[in-house]
Structure formats: structure tokens, C-alpha cells
Design a protein that fits this description.
The protein is of the alpha+beta class. It is built from 23 helices and 14 strands. It folds into five domains: about 60 residues; about 90 residues, no CATH class; about 200 residues, no CATH class; about 120 residues; about 130 residues. The strands form four sheets. It has an eight-stranded antiparallel sheet with strand order 5-4-3-2-1-8-7-6, covered by helices on one side. Strands 9-10 form a two-stranded antiparallel sheet.
């Protein structure tokens, strides 16, 4: 057997071991898997032997292409760096109390050891930095003295001192102590960094060698950037519903007030939309706006307790409680709280009950006033927005302002119950005046507020999802139908159809391409608006990454269809791109619990994270196009199977490269946050498995079976299950540190 086959066989065994290890981890525990698999000697030796066999096979084949040596040499260098880190690095933790000097740290592992540091550390003070006007943490900062010199450590801002990396880990409850992660890796990280630099050089070299692809892509991107957004909004006549609430004008006035929500000071309209979305998955109900729904739940609870607004997603829970998909609050209170006994049921039922219980608790938090943090109160630490149920120091506010904070909602209840709309308007105006007088620098920018209200006007992902799926699936059926003449001979285009289509078929392709550009422009504007409103790139949670993935697949389709070297028909590219984008948006529309704009956790506030997510989603977008193209080839093969496989490979090469760079940037982010670049988290492991699975078809000479078109297409379709499991399965089944996305 050739050395290359031994190398691939060993690589397959290692991938199988990683799959089994991630499956064992929930039951056996992370420490067990780390000790017996990932950190074991046999696992490291397996990777080293795989690298040696791969390089030896390359030498045995007498390959003279220096690009091949650059590819495989970079991977071998990365593995060498990981091996050096495992053999020479030390890591542990250091607990500092204010004013107490320390010169050693405690190592991790089964047998902790105390290791001296070449310097002395002392904590001057620790501080939790909150977002302006809120109690949401923005950063955790430890101010230190390193051999008497002042230094600081924060989230994503490690301290480098004499070859040691210090990262902020946690802090004491009294605010007088901090816990730092300490890592000393003198050889492994520089070698690994060199390996990734070589890998990046290999990817860029491969791309530039493909018929001037860089220049052509840049030229087409300049053309695409001139396309203007075209988006139309429709208004429907709203019908009168049964439950009582505020009229439209008064509800809109309430929605224009400010509230501290999600780590920001934003219009209450945003809080109302998120409240409705989390409760029922929709932002309106029976013709009522989100503000009317929220104020109805607050002011007329008896009316709204009967409304079927609480989503029950689990079919098993619906059968157990005998309720519909949307139940009323009263449905859960019959002879006691019906969800209570289910918390001790089987795992699936208990999880579904907990999900519904979160929605019910949201209603009660609203009615207790805990969500209405809408009163700015000046204090020693600046202005903090508080709710009417929180105690306010008597010396912080004037008597009239203190009375307004404590009684404004009581006045609002009284005037609403008496149907005194004039009194309701005066109450809202009084709260607005209070906010303007005492909000100071915490008040949001008026232009950003207008942009946020515009953003909340239309649920673009909901409608664009359905339109993209309809257009994309119809386009795919059209492309497959046009391939029928291929069985009868004659002149045919690249998609197997007639070279000069007639009638409606002549205009369907250009129409599909025009809609594709319009959908991409509309989604681009939507994401740009969300970025401006939130003050960050929309890549911080599952909902945002799905939106970014949809945008990426539309962009890839727009660029891909203009590349003449690819050779795939424009209609086919647009149809595949729209279908994949529609499925991305469908997932985003289903999981709307994190659709609100909020500030990120301090650990996630890093530009490396944005780049990591961006490149990973671009890779997944390209892989989606490869899979849809492969499905079309399997259902109705084109005239030249080898050319179709070549087109898929031209998409697969940048997808594998972008995924590799994305993994590398994630490793860099992990190093700045936790002091290490790889921790064998389940999502890290499955990202590596996905990357290896899609790298195998690029070795068609060593694996001739994958050089057959139908086998190749079937393989890339089957391998996409790893992408789906990496993004969805890991979060729901395996957990880990990547649960936010």
C-alpha cells in the first residue's frame, strides 16, 4: 500500500477518535476525555505519524510543485507547534488579593504544582466597567503592579511579561480580588504562528494562480457595489381585537420613551418587540402593535391572560398539557401551576417545560416593573437607569423627581383604568421630560434612535426567507427542467438546456439574477442598519450568524456567477445561492429568541471574533453552494460530468481555505482570552473534523475514488452533515464554551 493511503487511513482513525471523544464527553466528563484522548501520548503520536507519512508520501511521489510542499509543510509546522506546546508549555491560575504580593502560580492538572514567576505581582484594584447608563458589564479590568511598574489586564487584553501571558479569568465577589490565567509557551506558539502564516501563503498562492482570479473578482465586486437597494414595504389594515390596550397614538408615544435594555439605552419600542418575539415568535398580535401588546399585558392583565400568545414549541408538551401551539396564560394555571410537576420528568419534557416557564416568567417580570429600567438616577459612579421597583436614595433626587419615579406607573394604571387618555398622555410626557432632564450623556444619539425605529419597522428576514426559498427552489426546478433536451442531443448551454431558449424561459434567467442582486442589496442594507444601531458587527449570537451566513452565500453567488472561468450558468448559480440563503434565513426566523440587539459579553468583544465568524460563515456559504450544485448533479447529471466536478472543486478550494483561516483566527482569539489557542472544546473539534472532511476530496490523485464525479458529489453532500452538526448539533447535544453561537 502506498504511504499516502497509510496516511489517510491513520487520519480517518484520528477523526473517528475525535467523533467518539465528543460523544463520550457529556457522560464521562471533560477531564476524562482530555486525560485519556486529547492529552494522551498515543493521540499525539498518531498526529505526528500522520504528518510524517504525509510528507514521506509527497516525497515518494516526487512532486515538484512547490505549492504542494507549501500546503503540507504548513500543516506539519502547525502540528509541530502544537507538539512543542504540549511538551514545553506551562499553564495555571493565580489568585490575587488587593495589596498582597505574589510571585508564583498554581499549575493545572491532576497534580497541581506551585511554579515561581520571574517577577512579582500585586493587585492595586479591580473594577467592573459597565456600559454607559446600565449595569451590564462591558469589561473586567485588573490594575496590577509588575515589579513595581503599573500594568493592566482586561478581557481580550492579556498582559505579556517576560514570556508569560496573563489573562483575566474571574474575580472575587467583594471586588477586592482577581483570578488570572497564566501561561508560559516559549516555543510552541511561535512555531504554530509560523505554520499558519505558511498556510495563509499557500491559500493566497493557490488563489492567485487560478487564471488571475483576484483581479477578476475585484473588478466584478466594483460592479456589484454600484447596485442600489430596492425594497418595498406594504401596510395592512388592522382589525379591532377583543382585549383592551392603549390606543395607537398613546402606545407609540410610550414606545418613544427610552429604557435600559440589553446593555444599551434604546427606545422602548425595541423592548416591546423583543417581549412579543420571545413570548410568541411574532412582533404583533391580532392587529395590535408590539407596544400595544406589551402595555396590554401590563395594564389589563385579566384580558390578556386569556389570549393565546405563549408559544409552546414542543409537541410532546402540547399533548401532555392538551394545549395548542399558542396557549394562553390561563392554560398553565388549572388546579395549580401545571408546569411544576414536569420539571422532574424526562429530560426532553423538562427542557420544554423550562422553555415555556421562561416565557411565563417574562410576563411576570413585566408586570412587576422589572423590565422598565427607564429612570436615569445620578450617583457616585455616574448615571444609572433604574426601574420604579428599585430603591432610590433620598439624597440622589429632588422630592418631585423621587415621587415621579416611585408613582408614575401607579398614575398610569389609574388613568388607563378610568379611560382617561389625557391623563395617560400627561404621564408619558412627564416621564419623557424626566428622561431628558436627568439622562445627560447617557441619552442615545437622535440619529441612531431614528435608525433603530426604522430597523424595527419591517421584519425583513421573515419575508426575505420565504421569497428567497420560493425563487431559489423554482429556479432549481427550472434549471433541472432545461436539462431534459440533453437526452435528445443538439446544441446545449452549460446547464444542459438549449443554447437559445425561447419564450418565458428566455427571461426567467435574467429575472432570477435581478432578484438575486435585489435580495443581496436589501439584506446588506438591513445588516448595515443593525450594525449602526448596535454599534458592532452583527456576529455575536446564533441569529446574527445566520443572517451573516445568508448575506455571505448571496455575496458568493453574486461574485461566482460573474467569473467566466467557473463556467456554471448564471441561472443555476442564482438558484443555488437563493435557496441556500433562504435556508439560512429560515433558521434565523425560527430561532428569534436572540434576535434583539444587545451588547456582547465582555469575552466576546474582540475584532478577532468578528473576523473568525465572518470567514467561517463565508466558508459555510461556499460549502452550501457546493452541496446544492452536487445535489443537482446527482438528480440530473450535466453533459460533461468531469467539468461539473471541476466547477465544484473551484468552489471547494476557497471554502476549505477560508475555514482554515477562520479556525486559526478563533485560535488567536482564544489565546488573547484564555491564554491558549486550542482547548479541545466540542465545537473546535467538530470544526477541525469538518475541515479535514472537505480537504479529502482535494486529494483526488491519492484517493482516486473521489475523482469519480458521482462519488465526489455524493461525498460532499454527505459531508455537509458535519457542517450542520458543528453549528447546530454541538450546541444542543454536546454544549461547551461556544453555546452563544
Amino acid at each position: 500500500m502506498k504511504l499516502s493511503r497509510w496516511a489517510f487511513a491513520l487520519l480517518a482513525i484520528l477523526m473517528l477518535c475525535m467523533v467518539l471523544a465528543t460523544g463520550m464527553e457529556p457522560a464521562a466528563g471533560t477531564d476524562y476525555v482530555l486525560r485519556h484522548v486529547y492529552h494522551s501520548g498515543w493521540f499525539g503520536a498518531g498526529w505526528a505519524l500522520t504528518a510524517v507519512l504525509g510528507l514521506a508520501a509527497l516525497w515518494q511521489s516526487r512532486a515538484r510543485a512547490w505549492r504542494l510542499w507549501l500546503w503540507h509543510g504548513s500543516l506539519a509546522t502547525i502540528l509541530a507547534g502544537a507538539g512543542l506546546s504540549a511538551l514545553t508549555s506551562r499553564s495555571g491560575s493565580l489568585h490575587l488579593r488587593q495589596g498582597v504580593a505574589a510571585s508564583s502560580f498554581v499549575t493545572d492538572g491532576e497534580r497541581p504544582d506551585t511554579v515561581p514567576l520571574p517577577f512579582t505581582l500585586q493587585l492595586e484594584w479591580f473594577k467592573v466597567v459597565n456600559h454607559m447608563g446600565t449595569l451590564t458589564p462591558q469589561d473586567y479590568v485588573s490594575h496590577l503592579l509588575v515589579d513595581g511598574q503599573p500594568q493592566s489586564v482586561g478581557m481580550n487584553r492579556p498582559l505579556q511579561a517576560e514570556g508569560y501571558t496573563l489573562c483575566q479569568a474571574s474575580f472575587d465577589d467583594d471586588g477586592c480580588g482577581t483570578v488570572l490565567l497564566v501561561r508560559h509557551d516559549p516555543w510552541g506558539w511561535p512555531v504554530t504562528l509560523l505554520g499558519y502564516a505558511l498556510l495563509l501563503a499557500a491559500i493566497m498562492t493557490e488563489w492567485l494562480s487560478r487564471e488571475g482570479g483576484l483581479r477578476r473578482t475585484a473588478r466584478q465586486l466594483r460592479r456589484l457595489s454600484t447596485v442600489a437597494m430596492c425594497c418595498a414595504c406594504a401596510c395592512a389594515v388592522q382589525a379591532q381585537a377583543t382585549p383592551r390596550t392603549l390606543p395607537v397614538n398613546e402606545a407609540e408615544a410610550m414606545g418613544r420613551l427610552y429604557v435600559a435594555y440589553g446593555g444599551r439605552i434604546c427606545p422602548m419600542q425595541t423592548l416591546a418587540q423583543d417581549f412579543c418575539r420571545k413570548l410568541s415568535g411574532r412582533t404583533s398580535y391580532a392587529g395590535f402593535s408590539a407596544e400595544q401588546v406589551m402595555m396590554g399585558w401590563l395594564l389589563w392583565p385579566d384580558d390578556w391572560n386569556k389570549e393565546p400568545l405563549i408559544a409552546v414549541k414542543s409537541s410532546a408538551l402540547r399533548r401532555r398539557l392538551n394545549v395548542k401551539r399558542n396557549a394562553s396564560l390561563n392554560d398553565f394555571f388549572m388546579n395549580g401551576y401545571r408546569l411544576g410537576p414536569l420539571f422532574s420528568a424526562n429530560r426532553q419534557l423538562a427542557q420544554a417545560a423550562a422553555d415555556v416557564d421562561d416565557r411565563i416568567q417574562l410576563v411576570y417580570r413585566l408586570r412587576r416593573g422589572e423590565l422598565f429600567r427607564m429612570f436615569p438616577v445620578p450617583g457616585s459612579d455616574g448615571i444609572v437607569w433604574q426601574s420604579p421597583v428599585e430603591p432610590v436614595g433620598a439624597s440622589l433626587l429632588a422630592p418631585a423627581d423621587s415621587a415621579l419615579v416611585g408613582q408614575s406607573f401607579s398614575w398610569l394604571f389609574r388613568h388607563a383604568a378610568a379611560n382617561d387618555l389625557g391623563g395617560v398622555r400627561r404621564d408619558i410626557e412627564a416621564m419623557a421630560s424626566y428622561q431628558q432632564r436627568l439622562g445627560g450623556s447617557t441619552l442615545p444619539d437622535p440619529h441612531r434612535v431614528k435608525a433603530e425605529r426604522l430597523y424595527q419597522t419591517v421584519d425583513l428576514p421573515y419575508w426575505l426567507c420565504r421569497m428567497n426559498l420560493l425563487a431559489g427552489l423554482a429556479g432549481l426546478l427550472f434549471v433541472l427542467w432545461r436539462r431534459r433536451p440533453a437526452q435528445r442531443g443538439g446544441q446545449h448551454g452549460q446547464d444542459g438546456g438549449p443554447l437559445h431558449p425561447q419564450g418565458w424561459a428566455r427571461w426567467s434567467g435574467p429575472g432570477l439574477c435581478l432578484y438575486h442582486l435585489a435580495a443581496w442589496a436589501a439584506l446588506t442594507a438591513f445588516l448595515a442598519l443593525r450594525t449602526y444601531v448596535g454599534g458592532r458587527l452583527p456576529m455575536g449570537n446564533g441569529y446574527e450568524t445566520m443572517l451573516s451566513g445568508s448575506w455571505a452565500v448571496l455575496l458568493c453567488g453574486a461574485v461566482h456567477r460573474w467569473l467566466p472561468s467557473v463556467g456554471l450558468s448564471r441561472s443555476a448559480v442564482c438558484a443555488c445561492s437563493l435557496t441556500a440563503a433562504g435556508f439560512f434565513l429560515l433558521v434565523a426566523s425560527i430561532g428569534t429568541s436572540d434576535a434583539g440587539i444587545s451588547q456582547l459579553q465582555p469575552v466576546l468583544q474582540s475584532p478577532l471574533l468578528s473576523l473568525h465568524v465572518c470567514l467561517t460563515m463565508l466558508s459555510y456559504a461556499l460549502l452550501s453552494l457546493v452541496v446544492l450544485h452536487a445535489v443537482g448533479e446527482l438528480l440530473r447529471p450535466s453533459l460533461v460530468p468531469q467539468a461539473a466536478m471541476l466547477r465544484a472543486r473551484l468552489l471547494l478550494i476557497p471554502a476549505v481555505g477560508l475555514l482554515g483561516i477562520g479556525i486559526f483566527l478563533g485560535a488567536c482569539w482564544a489565546r488573547t482570552t484564555w491564554g491558549r489557542y486550542w482547548g479541545w472544546d466540542p465545537k473546535e473539534v467538530w470544526a477541525l473534523i469538518t475541515w479535514l472532511l472537505y480537504a479529502l476530496p482535494l486529494h483526488s490523485r491519492s484517493l482516486p475514488l473521489l475523482g469519480r464525479p458521482r462519488v465526489f458529489h455524493a461525498y460532499v453532500v454527505a459531508a455537509f452533515a458535519a457542517v450542520l452538526f458543528t453549528y447546530f448539533g454541538v450546541n444542543h447535544l454536546l454544549g461547551g464554551m461556544h453555546g452563544y453561537a
